Each structure stands twice: as C-alpha cells, then as structure tokens.
Amino acid sequence: MTEPNEDSGRQAELDQVRTSVRAICNKHGIDYWRQTDATHAYPEAFMDTMGEAGYLGALIPGAYGGTDAGPAVASVVVEEINRFGGDAAVINAQMAICGTLTRHGTEAQKLRWLPGVATGASRFLTVAATEPDSGADMSKLASSARRDGDDWIIDARKILISLAEYTHAMIVLVKTSEGPTLFLLDMDEVRPHLEIRPIDLISNRHTTTLFIDDLRVPDSMRLGAPGAGLRCLMDGFPVRRVLAAAESIGNARFFFERSLDHATTRRTFGRLIGQNQGVQYPIASVYGKIEAADLMRWDAVRRIEKGASEAGGRSALAKILASEAAWEASRVALTTFGGWGLAGEYHVERKLRDATVFVFNNMLLSYVAERMLGMPKAF
Ligand SMILES: Cc1cc2nc3c(=O)[nH]c(=O)nc-3n(C[C@H](O)[C@H](O)[C@H](O)COP(=O)(O)OP(=O)(O)OC[C@H]3O[C@@H](n4cnc5c(N)ncnc54)[C@H](O)[C@@H]3O)c2cc1C
C-alpha cells in the first residue's frame, strides 16, 4: 500500500509497520476476534503481543518509555488490525487516551503511568465523560467534585463508558466550582468505591454504566487545572478523530477486499457474480469513496504533525468520510456475499457491527458547519 505523497523513508517505515502488525494479526488469527466477540472477552493475549512489539507507546515521548512514533504510525496500526478483521478499539484507547496525561499531567503523574502504558503493564483505556441526562453536551455536567481540606470528594453518574472494568487508570470529567475538571483515578485504589454495570451493546466494546459515590481522592489525582477539563480533553480530539478515521478505513478495506475476492471467485448462473453490474458497480463505487476518505485522513495526519490550525476540521472530515465509506462498504459486502454475509464464519456480520459503532457524526458535522463554514451556532 502506498500512502499519498509520502517520502520514501517514511513510506518504508509505514510499510514495515503494516507488515509487522499484519504478522501479529496472523499469529492470533481471525477466529481469535470471532471468539472474543462471542464471549465478550477482553483481547488480553493480543494486547500483550502488541505491548511486546512496542506499539502501545506510539504516542508516548521517549523520556517516558514510549517510541514517540506519532499519529501516522498509530493510525496505520489500528487500520491494519481492522483491515485484517480484528477490532482495534482497545489498542486505540491504550495508545491515545494517555495523550491528555502527556500534555497536561504533572511530572509525578507522567512518571507514575506512562512507562507502564507504553509496555502494556498498566492499562489506560478509559475516559468517563458522558452522562445520563446531558449526553453529548459535556458542558452540562451533573457529576461533581468538591474540595474537602487537601482532598476532593467525587460524585458521578456516567453512561456508555468503555473498558472501565479492565483499565488501571481512568480519567473522569466532573464539574467543580471552577468549572469542568479532570481527575486521573488510580483504579487499584478506588475500584472498591465504584459500581460498574455492563451495558449490552451491538459490538464487543465493554461498555458500562459507572456510579461513583462520595469518593475521597487526593489533589494529586487532579489532572490539569481546575476548570480546564474540557480544554484538556478537546486538544486531543484531532488525534482521536484521525485514529477513528483510520479504524474506519481499516473496516472499509476489510469489506472491500473480501467483497472483491468473493465477487471474482463465486459463480452462480454459470458465471462469476462479479460479472453482474449489480455486484460490480457498488464495489467500484465504494472503492473510490474509501480512497477519497484515506486522502483526507493523510491530509489530517500531516496537519496534526505540523501543528496546523486546520487539523481539527480536517480530522473531523476524515472521520466523517471514513465512517460513511465503511458503512457503505458493509452494505456492499452484504450484497456481494448474499446470505453468507450474515453467517459468523465469514466475519462480515461481526465487522458490520463493529463498523456501525462509528456512524455517529452529528457533533462533527456541527463542528464543520460552524468552525469551517462560519454557519450560525446551533447551541
Ligand atoms: C461504543 C460506544 C462507546 C462509548 N464509550 C464512551 C466512553 O468511553 N466514554 C464516554 O464518556 N462516552 C462514551 N460513549 C458515549 C458517546 O460519547 C455518546 O454516545 C455521545 O456523547 C452522545 O451521547 P448520547 O448517546 O447520550 O446521545 P444524545 O446526547 O442523547 O444525542 C442523541 C443523538 O442526537 C444528536 N444530537 C444531540 N444534540 C445535538 C445537536 N445539538 N445537534 C445535532 N445533533 C445532536 C447526537 O449526535 C445523537 O446522534 C460511547 C458510546 C458508544 C456508542
């Protein structure tokens, strides 16, 4: 695969990453993912292998044990896992969520967590922001923290929170008298005071409801300045969106490549099904949409690397285009595979469920309309 307009040195590095991640995927096999999905399991063995290969610290500076490989490499890692037929959600979380700590944590917090996150010894998989009443509106928090001497007392209700049962470190967004504020909870210390209830979801996302009642934490667990919580989270959004776009491109390529193979090998009515325009044209059409989304993804990656101000908008467009391409590709795969598209052994139905998780784009469209196009604010 050739990334658009990469110089030959960087192209070789990205090719090497693809080859190495593909080898790790092959080692575990595609049925590994079918099994973890069916049993709602955490992909522990796969994460261990990715840790040994050094990929978990791709976005962590070398001074804290990471490789500082950057968003281009991180995006190729998650794309290849999904393109293989795996589910990169957990590795995406482990690579990217610690970015808020890297940018806003104290030296003591960074030394406490980042080296273990880079190896995989410490799992840092969760940001708890969404609430039952306010949903997508993170400025209307009911969860709170109040000062009590040198400590804080946290009360929170959070919903749709991923991987809370498995993580060792969790960022929680609450309101304080200064405004939205982040806390970085050491789960080994606070877990007995949390109630975590699983939510049954379309895909194996380990999603939960989280209750925190009168939890006393030291000020050393506060992350960033009081009142700066939303800003601290949001400056990591361009990278998070690019990784979501890359995951979606991986999903889209999984559907596309499987469909192309099936259309050019399966025969009915005495000919290849790919000879029928009803099968052929949707495959050709979605191929163009995947490639277009990928161009936007690489444009966003380069702008992030340069610290360009347009990185936010381009990363939003990349996520929108890539998730829409994956959605369309999943439908193309259903048309191409017919009844077998719904059978577990072909993996299309499982990936179709995985790809569906990415289709919520309203907040990004709002960002594009207001910030890029100067349209009136909706809220
Ligand atoms: C698989 C999965 C994992 C998740 N993991 C986490 C996690 O780890 N941590 C976490 O904090 N959250 C997580 N979430 C929650 C996710 O961030 C929320 O679903 C999202 O913020 C929207 O909140 P809501 O579902 O309550 O929808 P609501 O806020 O009720 O909105 C419903 C719909 O209306 C749309 N909408 C609402 N207001 C507007 C508006 N002003 N303009 C246009 N459209 C609007 C929304 O886009 C959405 O499509 C996860 C969600 C999923 C599906």
What is the radius of gyration?
21 Å
Low-confidence stretches: none
**Distance separating the two termini:** 42 Å
The count of helical stretches stands at 14
| Ligands bound, unique | flavin-adenine dinucleotide
Q: What would you say this structure looks like, in words?
A:
The chain has 379 residues and is of the alpha+beta class. It has three domains: 112 residues, Orthogonal Bundle (Butyryl-Coa Dehydrogenase, subunit A, domain 1); 107 residues, Butyryl-CoA Dehydrogenase, subunit A, domain 2; 137 residues, Butyryl-CoA Dehydrogenase, subunit A, domain 3 (Up-down Bundle). Helices cover 51% and strands 16% of the residues. The protein is built from 14 helices and ten strands. The strands form three sheets. A four-stranded mixed β-sheet has the order 1-4-5-8. It has a four-stranded antiparallel β-sheet with strand order 2-3-7-6, with no helix packed on it. A hairpin with a 2-residue loop joins β4 and β5. α10 runs antiparallel to α13 and α11 runs antiparallel to α12. The chain is globular and about 80 Å long. The two termini are 42 Å apart. Bound molecules: flavin-adenine dinucleotide (FAD). Flavin-adenine dinucleotide binds next to β1, β3 and α14.
